[in-house]
């Protein structure tokens, strides 16, 4: 026994230390859960207001502002007061019954009012109807806490703390992961169905009457601290309502701290100030606390602006003639090729014929046939009248190649969306079909050059739910595997695992992205993203949006992330004012703690950002950003007929 004494002492010491560590972690989790619960309470403000105006296309103006606690994305009930009821003895009017008639989602908050969209398109609402966020308890689903490997025990403890904290607020009635999963199984869905799947959310809304589902995620950034990110997803629309985050403290569950991010192999070399000349906006800027140690506090790169005398709306950089860096631009029905001469692009080639029924939707370049010159891949839609007032769309895409003197088509009238993309050192051509009333239908397919023609090879290896545009692939976390980086219809940049399709995190700020629009004859109002009133006898058209470009890049000590435009006002602003937003900027979102966070951006431009690309245009070894912006008077229906602005800035200046 005496020999075992020292071992017993050591075991007791280890046990005491372990208990103290667990208690400290439990206290940290409890504090973090309480902070998150407080933020979620703010996501459901007890507020009431009135509809002051009912506008076309299902838009509503309400008399609420940010001071009332509302924000873009907030969903509210629309109610109507009934006849007054009286006390049977005194005859005194006691009040009025209220009936919920529809729902809305706030899309923009201004100084004196907010703009919302009607979610129940088939319901009739009117001026004077009330709007509210219910003052009753919010029925909220709480998913399991996602955690890094080895952190499952802590994740379960944290989930319990979040559930307790939400209950203590008095604002929520919480349904845990087990209840939600059993409900899905009873409804005929698989137990492993993602809770953010629209089908799963529909079941949870109908069976449990949930308003939203909270998806918590426990992440460990490079410093070793733990961060709790919680995404709130609407059970009605599957849209992200809010993302809240809080730090927990030093990780007690991880055996080793996460390795710091290494600079991306594709990161550009450091800037050479002597090569730059001062110019106008947009210059990359950042918050002062992010620029410590750098002269002047902000990085002010040398940029310049070129006016393109053609109404281009899309751009891509490539080697079309095989003789140096060139830029391809596309207007509504024309393709232009410019060669970079000094600081200006000079037109050298063009292709196309004016046709009001044609509209170019996307533009990409790559050397798929392996002849040393990039082909130009153009997705084009033809919209023709159908019947008395309808509209019929079909894709008539094509591929162009330089034959030594001019651009010639080598594949025409292709009934597919076409997109060339580069992943690492590999170039791919992918395709997707168009549906009857939606832009995309079916799986993504890979197309290869075989002999003297393009042929479909088979499915492109991406999870279901990823359509051909609005996504890119990039290794954000440095594990050697590319993540899927996707731009949602609400302007949120989302990150998914490329193999499992599991959601990994999303962006802060926004909404991000540019959009191209297609009108379809409206068959099912519930599936429309925006319903516009047609000039043709009031026929309803569903305007679908095709999300624009985003790029995964590495920026040295800033880590890996995504470059994406931010057009102020969002998509609905375009339809309220009949034109694209009048302000925009380009933003770099860095991957930090399981989310994309803005770390630097250009100054605000008084123009709409239509497209951009990143390439070394002048051969100095440093990538430039080509930023295509349009004047505010660009009209949706009439098309852009003026000059386009091309701003050139240095990617490395974002450091």
Give, in spatial order, the strands making up the sheet with the most strands.
1-2-5-4-3-6
What is the terminal separation in angstroms? 64 Å
Helix content: 10-25%
Largest sheet: 6 strands, antiparallel, barrel
Question: Which range does the strand content fall in?
Answer: 35-45%
Radius of gyration: 27 Å
Mean pLDDT across residues: 77
Shape: globular
Multimer state: single chain
Uncertain runs: 7-23, 250-281, 286-302, 522-541, 570-578, 634-638
Number of helices: 5
Number of strands: 40
Q: What class would the helix/strand composition place it in?
A: mainly beta
Question: What are the main properties of this structure?
Answer:
single chain, 655 residues, mainly beta, six-stranded antiparallel β-barrel, five-stranded mixed beta sheet, 5 helices, globular
């Amino acid at each position: 026994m005496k020999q075992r004494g020292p071992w017993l002492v050591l075991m007791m010491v280890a046990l005491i230390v372990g208990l103290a560590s667990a208690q400290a972690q439990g206290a940290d989790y409890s504090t973090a859960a309480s902070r998150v619960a407080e933020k979620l309470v703010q996501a459901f403000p007890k507020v009431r207001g009135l509809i002051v105006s009912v506008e076309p296309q299902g838009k509503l103006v309400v008399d609420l502002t940010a001071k009332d606690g509302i924000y873009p994305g907030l969903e509210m009930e629309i109610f109507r007061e009934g006849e007054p009821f009286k006390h049977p003895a005194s005859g005194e009017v006691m009040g009025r019954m209220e009936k919920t008639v529809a729902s809305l989602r706030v899309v923009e908050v201004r100084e004196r009012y907010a703009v919302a969209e009607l979610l129940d398109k088939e319901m009739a609402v009117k001026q004077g109807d009330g709007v509210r966020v219910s003052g009753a308890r919010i029925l909220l689903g709480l998913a399991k806490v996602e955690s890094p490997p080895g952190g499952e025990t802590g994740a379960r403890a944290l989930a319990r703390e979040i559930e307790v904290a939400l209950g203590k607020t008095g604002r929520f009635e919480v349904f845990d992961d087990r209840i939600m999963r059993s409900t899905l199984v009873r409804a005929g869905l698989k137990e492993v169905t993602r809770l953010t799947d629209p089908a799963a959310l529909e079941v949870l809304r109908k069976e449990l009457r949930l308003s939203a589902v909270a998806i918590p995620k426990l992440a460990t950034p490079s410093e070793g601290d733990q961060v709790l990110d919680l995404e709130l997803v609407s059970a009605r629309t599957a849209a992200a309502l809010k993302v809240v985050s809080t730090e927990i403290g030093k990780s007690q569950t991880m055996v080793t701290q996460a390795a710091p991010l290494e600079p991306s192999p594709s990161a550009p070399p450091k800037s050479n100030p002597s090569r730059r000349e001062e110019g106008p906006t947009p210059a990359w800027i950042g918050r002062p606390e992010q620029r410590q140690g750098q002269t002047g506090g902000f990085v002010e790169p040398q940029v310049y602006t070129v006016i393109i005398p053609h109404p281009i709306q899309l751009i891509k950089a490539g080697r079309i003639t095989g003789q140096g860096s060139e830029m391809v631009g596309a207007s509504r029905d024309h393709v232009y090729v410019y060669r970079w001469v000094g600081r200006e692009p000079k037109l050298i080639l063009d292709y196309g014929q004016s046709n009001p029924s044609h509209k170019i939707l996307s533009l990409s370049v790559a050397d798929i046939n392996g002849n040393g010159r990039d082909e130009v891949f153009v997705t084009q839609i033809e919209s023709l009248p159908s019947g008395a007032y309808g509209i019929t769309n079909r894709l008539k895409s094509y591929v162009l190649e330089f034959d030594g003197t001019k651009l010639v088509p080598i594949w025409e009238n292709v009934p597919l969306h076409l997109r060339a993309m580069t992943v690492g050192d590999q170039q791919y051509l992918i395709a997707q079909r168009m549906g009857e009333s939606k832009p995309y239908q079916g799986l993504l397919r890979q197309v290869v050059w075989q002999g003297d023609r393009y042929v479909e090879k088979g499915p492109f290896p991406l999870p279901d739910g990823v359509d051909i545009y609005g996504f890119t692939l990039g290794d954000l976390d440095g594990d050697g595997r590319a993540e899927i980086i996707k731009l949602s219809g609400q302007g949120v940049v989302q990150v998914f695992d490329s193999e499992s399709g599991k959601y990994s995190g999303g962006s802060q700020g926004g909404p991000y992205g540019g959009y191209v629009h297609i009108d379809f004859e409206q068959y099912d109002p519930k599936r429309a993203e925006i319903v516009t009133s047609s000039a043709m006898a009031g026929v309803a058209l569903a305007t679908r949006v095709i999300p624009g470009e985003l790029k995964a890049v590495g920026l040295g000590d800033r880590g890996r992330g995504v470059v994406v435009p931010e057009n102020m006002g969002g998509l609905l602003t375009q339809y309220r004012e009949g034109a694209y937003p009048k302000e925009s900027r380009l933003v770099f979102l860095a991957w930090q703690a399981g989310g994309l966070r803005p770390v630097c951006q250009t100054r605000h431009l008084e123009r709409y950002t239509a497209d951009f690309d990143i390439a070394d245009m002048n051969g100095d070894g440093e990538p430039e950003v080509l930023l295509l912006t349009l004047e505010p008077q660009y009209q949706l229906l009439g098309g852009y007929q003026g000059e386009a602005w091309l701003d050139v800035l240095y990617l490395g200046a974002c450091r």
